[in-house]
Protein backbone atom coordinates (compact mmCIF):
# COMPACT_ATOMS: atom_id res chain seq x y z
CA UNK A 1 0.00 0.00 0.00
CA UNK A 2 2.85 2.39 0.83
CA UNK A 3 4.54 1.47 -2.45
CA UNK A 4 1.31 2.21 -4.36
CA UNK A 5 1.11 5.65 -2.75
CA UNK A 6 4.77 6.36 -3.55
CA UNK A 7 4.29 5.33 -7.18
CA UNK A 8 1.13 7.45 -7.44
CA UNK A 9 2.93 10.47 -5.96
CA UNK A 10 5.84 10.01 -8.37
CA UNK A 11 3.48 9.77 -11.35
CA UNK A 12 1.55 12.84 -10.19
CA UNK A 13 4.76 14.87 -9.78
CA UNK A 14 6.05 13.81 -13.19
CA UNK A 15 2.71 14.56 -14.79
CA UNK A 16 2.56 18.03 -13.22
CA UNK A 17 6.14 18.81 -14.33
CA UNK A 18 5.34 17.74 -17.90
CA UNK A 19 2.19 19.89 -17.92
CA UNK A 20 4.15 22.89 -16.62
CA UNK A 21 6.89 22.52 -19.25
CA UNK A 22 4.28 21.95 -21.96
CA UNK A 23 2.44 25.12 -20.94
CA UNK A 24 5.66 27.20 -21.01
CA UNK A 25 6.48 25.88 -24.49
CA UNK A 26 2.88 26.52 -25.59
CA UNK A 27 3.04 30.14 -24.45
CA UNK A 28 6.33 30.53 -26.33
CA UNK A 29 4.70 29.12 -29.50
CA UNK A 30 1.81 31.57 -29.19
CA UNK A 31 4.17 34.53 -28.69
CA UNK A 32 6.48 33.55 -31.57
CA UNK A 33 3.56 32.97 -33.92
CA UNK A 34 1.87 36.22 -32.91
CA UNK A 35 4.99 38.35 -33.29
CA UNK A 36 5.75 36.90 -36.73
CA UNK A 37 2.28 36.61 -38.31
CA UNK A 38 3.29 38.70 -41.32
CA UNK A 39 6.88 37.47 -41.63
CA UNK A 40 6.33 34.30 -43.63
CA UNK A 41 4.83 35.09 -47.04
CA UNK A 42 6.00 31.77 -48.51
CA UNK A 43 3.48 30.03 -46.18
CA UNK A 44 1.38 32.37 -44.04
CA UNK A 45 -0.10 29.42 -42.14
CA UNK A 46 3.18 28.65 -40.33
CA UNK A 47 2.76 31.43 -37.72
CA UNK A 48 -0.94 30.52 -37.44
CA UNK A 49 0.09 26.91 -36.90
CA UNK A 50 2.30 27.99 -33.98
CA UNK A 51 -0.48 30.09 -32.42
CA UNK A 52 -3.14 27.38 -32.71
CA UNK A 53 -0.77 24.63 -31.55
CA UNK A 54 0.07 26.60 -28.41
CA UNK A 55 -3.57 27.42 -27.78
CA UNK A 56 -4.72 23.81 -28.23
CA UNK A 57 -1.98 22.58 -25.90
CA UNK A 58 -2.93 25.02 -23.15
CA UNK A 59 -6.62 24.17 -23.59
CA UNK A 60 -5.77 20.46 -23.35
CA UNK A 61 -3.82 21.11 -20.14
CA UNK A 62 -6.77 22.96 -18.63
CA UNK A 63 -9.17 20.16 -19.57
CA UNK A 64 -6.75 17.60 -18.16
CA UNK A 65 -6.45 19.47 -14.86
CA UNK A 66 -10.23 19.86 -14.61
CA UNK A 67 -10.62 16.16 -15.28
CA UNK A 68 -8.14 15.29 -12.53
CA UNK A 69 -10.06 17.46 -10.08
CA UNK A 70 -13.36 15.74 -10.95
CA UNK A 71 -12.12 12.16 -11.28
CA UNK A 72 -13.59 9.48 -9.07
CA UNK A 73 -12.54 6.02 -8.04
CA UNK A 74 -14.63 3.29 -9.62
CA UNK A 75 -15.70 0.05 -7.93
CA UNK A 76 -12.37 -1.69 -8.60
CA UNK A 77 -10.24 1.17 -7.29
CA UNK A 78 -9.20 2.82 -10.56
CA UNK A 79 -9.55 6.61 -10.85
CA UNK A 80 -11.70 7.58 -13.84
CA UNK A 81 -12.55 11.00 -15.27
CA UNK A 82 -16.21 11.89 -15.84
CA UNK A 83 -17.53 11.05 -19.33
CA UNK A 84 -17.75 14.71 -20.48
CA UNK A 85 -14.05 15.21 -19.64
CA UNK A 86 -13.15 12.03 -21.49
CA UNK A 87 -15.11 13.17 -24.56
CA UNK A 88 -13.44 16.60 -24.53
CA UNK A 89 -10.01 14.95 -24.15
CA UNK A 90 -10.67 12.71 -27.15
CA UNK A 91 -11.89 15.65 -29.25
CA UNK A 92 -8.85 17.75 -28.23
CA UNK A 93 -6.52 14.89 -29.14
CA UNK A 94 -8.17 14.51 -32.55
CA UNK A 95 -7.99 18.28 -33.16
CA UNK A 96 -4.31 18.38 -32.15
CA UNK A 97 -3.55 15.41 -34.40
CA UNK A 98 -5.26 16.96 -37.43
CA UNK A 99 -3.62 20.33 -36.76
CA UNK A 100 -0.22 18.64 -36.40
CA UNK A 101 -0.59 16.96 -39.80
CA UNK A 102 -1.69 20.21 -41.46
CA UNK A 103 1.14 22.16 -39.82
CA UNK A 104 3.69 19.59 -40.90
CA UNK A 105 2.38 19.80 -44.45
CA UNK A 106 2.58 23.63 -44.47
CA UNK A 107 6.04 23.71 -42.92
CA UNK A 108 7.70 20.99 -44.96
CA UNK A 109 6.41 22.19 -48.32
CA UNK A 110 7.43 25.83 -47.69
CA UNK A 111 11.16 25.53 -48.59
CA UNK A 112 11.78 29.16 -47.61
CA UNK A 113 14.60 31.59 -48.19
CA UNK A 114 15.64 33.80 -45.33
CA UNK A 115 16.08 37.05 -47.28
CA UNK A 116 13.33 39.61 -46.55
CA UNK A 117 11.48 40.96 -49.57
CA UNK A 118 11.52 37.74 -51.58
CA UNK A 119 8.28 35.87 -52.32
CA UNK A 120 9.78 32.71 -50.80
CA UNK A 121 10.80 34.48 -47.56
CA UNK A 122 10.01 33.17 -44.12
CA UNK A 123 11.53 34.42 -40.90
CA UNK A 124 14.29 31.96 -40.01
CA UNK A 125 13.39 31.73 -36.31
CA UNK A 126 9.67 31.22 -36.99
CA UNK A 127 10.35 28.49 -39.53
CA UNK A 128 12.90 26.74 -37.31
CA UNK A 129 10.56 26.82 -34.30
CA UNK A 130 7.84 25.18 -36.40
CA UNK A 131 10.31 22.64 -37.80
CA UNK A 132 11.85 21.82 -34.41
CA UNK A 133 8.34 21.51 -32.96
CA UNK A 134 7.75 18.54 -35.27
CA UNK A 135 11.02 16.92 -34.31
CA UNK A 136 10.24 17.31 -30.60
CA UNK A 137 6.69 16.01 -31.05
CA UNK A 138 7.98 12.93 -32.91
CA UNK A 139 10.55 12.29 -30.16
CA UNK A 140 7.91 12.70 -27.45
CA UNK A 141 5.51 10.40 -29.31
CA UNK A 142 8.27 7.80 -29.67
CA UNK A 143 9.16 8.00 -25.98
CA UNK A 144 5.48 7.90 -25.01
CA UNK A 145 5.03 4.78 -27.10
CA UNK A 146 8.00 3.12 -25.38
CA UNK A 147 6.76 4.11 -21.91
CA UNK A 148 3.23 3.00 -22.77
CA UNK A 149 4.50 -0.40 -23.81
CA UNK A 150 6.36 -0.81 -20.51
CA UNK A 151 3.58 0.80 -18.50
CA UNK A 152 0.94 -1.35 -20.15
CA UNK A 153 2.75 -4.51 -19.13
CA UNK A 154 3.07 -3.28 -15.53
CA UNK A 155 -0.50 -1.98 -15.36
CA UNK A 156 -1.87 -5.16 -16.92
CA UNK A 157 -0.32 -7.14 -14.08
CA UNK A 158 -1.56 -4.66 -11.45
CA UNK A 159 -5.04 -4.31 -13.00
CA UNK A 160 -5.49 -8.06 -13.35
CA UNK A 161 -4.66 -8.48 -9.69
CA UNK A 162 -7.12 -5.71 -8.70
CA UNK A 163 -9.76 -7.08 -11.08
CA UNK A 164 -9.30 -10.60 -9.71
CA UNK A 165 -9.75 -9.31 -6.16
CA UNK A 166 -12.90 -7.47 -7.24
CA UNK A 167 -14.38 -10.45 -9.06
CA UNK A 168 -13.48 -12.91 -6.31
CA UNK A 169 -15.04 -10.58 -3.76
CA UNK A 170 -18.35 -10.40 -5.65
CA UNK A 171 -18.67 -13.89 -7.09
CA UNK A 172 -18.62 -16.78 -4.67
CA UNK A 173 -16.85 -19.86 -5.90
CA UNK A 174 -19.30 -22.62 -6.84
CA UNK A 175 -19.62 -25.39 -4.30
CA UNK A 176 -18.30 -28.79 -5.22
CA UNK A 177 -20.74 -31.72 -5.45
CA UNK A 178 -19.58 -33.14 -2.10
CA UNK A 179 -20.14 -29.80 -0.32
CA UNK A 180 -23.59 -29.45 -1.91
CA UNK A 181 -24.58 -33.01 -0.84
CA UNK A 182 -23.35 -32.56 2.76
CA UNK A 183 -25.29 -29.32 3.25
CA UNK A 184 -28.56 -30.88 2.04
Automatic annotation (TrEMBL):
InterPro entries listed in its UniProt record: TMEM272
Superkingdom as given in the UniProt entry: Eukaryota
PANTHER family from the UniProt entry: SI:DKEY-19B23.12-RELATED (PTHR33444), TRANSMEMBRANE PROTEIN 272 (PTHR33444:SF7)
Protein name as annotated: Uncharacterized protein
Gene: WBGene00279368
